[in-house]
Amino acid sequence: MTNPDHAPAASATASGPARAALEAWVAQIASLACPDAVVWCDGSPEQTAHLTQLLVDEGKLIALDPERRPNSYLARSAPDDVARVEGRTFTCSRTPEDAGPTNLWRDPTAMRTELEGRFAGSMRGRTMYVVPFSMGPVGGPISQLGVEVTDSAYVVLSMAKTTRLGPEVLRAIGAGVPWVATVHSVGHPLRDADGTLRDDVTWPCNETKYIVQFPETREVWSYGSGYGGNALLAKKCFALRIASVMGRDEGWLAEHMLLIRLTSPEGRAFHIAAAFPSACGKTNLAMLQPALPGWSVETIGDDIAWLRPGADGRLYAINPEAGLFGVAPGTGPDTNPVAVETIAADTIFTNVALTHDGDVWWEGLTPEPPGHLVDWTGADWTPDSGTPAAHPNARFTVALDRCPSRAADADRPVPIDAVVFGGRRSTNVPLVAQAPSWAEGVFMGATVSSERTAAAEGTVGELRRDPFAMLPFCGYDMADHWAHWLEIGEQLGDGAPAVFQVNWFRKGEDGALLWPGFRENARVLEWIARRVEGSVRAVESPVGLLPDVGGLDVRGLDLPPGRLDALFAVDPESWLDECTLTEAFFAGFADRTPPVFTAILDDRRSALRAAVPDQRIVH
Ligand code: GTP
Ligand code: SPV
Ligand code: MN
User: Fold this and answer.
1) Within this chain, do residues 112 and 15 fall inside the same structural domain, yes or no?
2) What is the structure's pLDDT at 198?
3) How far away, in angstroms, is 279 Cα from ligand 1 center?
4) How many domains does the chain have?
5) What's the sign of the alpha-carbon dihedral 577, 582, 588, 590?
6) Ligand 1 pocket test, candidate residues 276, 278, 280, most atoms within 8 A of CB
7) pLDDT for 435 beyond 80
8) CB–CB of 287/338 below 8 Å?
């Protein structure tokens, strides 16, 4: 399997200039990073088994009990390499203006020099894996190709579950299909330049990290981390940061959105794309088992959607990923039984706890914790330990074809009927509202914000803006992203999806959630579907169209009197305060903010002022 001359296996096909260019690029990275060997990966069962065994032998993966959790493994990361590092994530566009005020910009030329220093010899003593992958089915109308070189076999195994690997990717590259170049090193060589040997560790990484996007040349360079979005470069780095720029230039969209097909009792299918910030329930909604009889949900994607206008004037979407990298804590039989079934086998767990009988556990999996565990750091744990047994960002990595609710035809682009924006808002934002127009829908997405649940006693949750749930993921100026959405809407015209906002997290004065959430969210999806088909009325409000009396099916929920009013109340004064914050937020983008947003904000303020009882208006 090892090719010292850096050439892929002959069986992987064609020669020719495109293939030679790939091989030259691989050779160039190898001569910089100096790995001991180069291995080309195709995701074959034999190669996967070999790499898995290698990691088990090295102590980097723990094999779980084959009866309780077949073909599944546990990895424990270094304690300081547990999540994405936004403070070390750089956008190296030509100018800082192209990156915009929400990204960390660095000069591309200076950054290349810095990275060359870091990558020089960074793979000494290790194997460099070459992983050609496809986002979306190879050759699909919305698909893209990429190649990741990495010195982490754990990354290769994760990529084999979350992207499409295989010889057909190399064939497509050989045939001249463009690809995105991504380079990853954990930054822990086993030999220094002078030959001094360094011990390997179970989770190699480097205290200095770089997650670097070069949007113009469609490249990603990542150094020092082995974790999630820092290291699986197909995911946030390519499929959102680089792809959002490709979409801007080529007339499509790359978004932090789940994708589902909702089918009504009459058999009509509705395709919904929904953007919620991290930990606001995308995976949950993607696997919804509706509480309403006759309705069903099929899972297409849980994190990323690529959307492109079709020849028929509708917006088509795919999930570019082939697997899930989902948060483990909070995932249990009551909250997400489909996820629990999905990860019953063939799963890599990272930073969860280990049970005495070789299975995994995390907070929320069962109501009562086991009496004894080995926690995510490898230390003995009991319920009295006072620390979480699993890291709060512990994750499972699993192929989507294990998901029982996965749409059978999930490879085919689907026409989007509704775009939904959400966040965690304990006040103000109603359970559901429809944007009266595309522009107002884009405004809704641009003003998404999410609150921390009251962590510290007495503190009011701070409003954190997360426009389109893309704050850490948009590869160019966020305001240009809004303008791009407005342009796509103009292009789609009447074929554009309807746009909605949802909020499962509104609380009453007693601090308790007003809405049961989870399976019951199907009731909100039903209203959205009925609005799309035009069979249910809505009433106007200053913040969008709301369900008419009786329009939202709450039969069987046993909501107390006044509960629906509380879920949909629009308080003019607090919304006027929110308008002031929105104005300040837009000012941060200066004249790149779309002018139509100013008009929408003005209209909203007028409507809110008209709704304030006279005696409360301050003149
Ligand atoms: P990333 O993978 O980080 O992008 O996050 P995600 O959007 O997929 O979020 P995830 O599904 O992991 O977030 C789940 C969190 O939201 C858990 O704490 C759930 O309990 C909570 N959650 C999901 N749906 C609901 C709901 O309808 N109501 C309430 N109250 N909580 C919910
Ligand atoms: C997120 O943070 O939104 C994730 C996890 O989905 S990661 O892939 O690490 O970005
Ligand atoms: Mn995400």
Assistant:
1) yes
2) 96
3) 5
4) 3
5) negative
6) 280
7) yes
8) yes
For residue 12, pLDDT beyond 50: no
Which ranges constitute the DSSP H helices of 137-279?
Answer: 153-162, 167-174, 228-231, 243-250
Are residues 604 and 559 located together in one domain of the fold?
yes
State how far the Cα of 257 lies from the Cα of 327, in Å rounded to an integer: 16
CATH number at residue 582: 3.90.228.20
What pLDDT, on a 0 to 100 scale, did the predictor assign at position 464? Answer: 82
Q: Find out whether the beta carbon of 335 lies less than 6 Å from any atom of ligand 1.
A: yes
- Tell me the residue type at 545: L
Query: Strand 538-541 and strand 544-547: pairing?
Result: antiparallel
Residue 458 has pLDDT above 80, yes or no: no
Domain limit, last residue, from 236, 251, 266: 251
pLDDT tens-place string over residues 280-289: 899 999 999 9
Please check whether residue 478 lies inside any domain of the structure. yes
Confirm or reject: Cβ of 324 under 6 Å from ligand 1.
no
**pLDDT at position 450:** 86
Q: Is 593 in the pocket of ligand 1 (CB under 6 A)?
A: no
Tell me the whole-structure pTM to 2 decimals: 0.95
Mind listing the pLDDT tens digit for each residue in 560-597? 999 999 999 999 999 999 999 999 999 999 999 999 99
Q: Domain range holding 356? A: 324-402
* Residue 527 amino acid letter: W
Tell the burial category of 159 from Cβ atoms under 10 Å away from its Cβ (0-12, 13-18, 19+). Answer: buried
Tokens of 596: 């139509």
Q: Which two tokens stand for residue 31?
A: 């001569």
Task: Report the Cα–Cα distance between both ends of the chain, in Å, rounded.
Answer: 78
Is 205 annotated as catalytic? no
Q: pLDDT at residue 619 above 90?
A: no
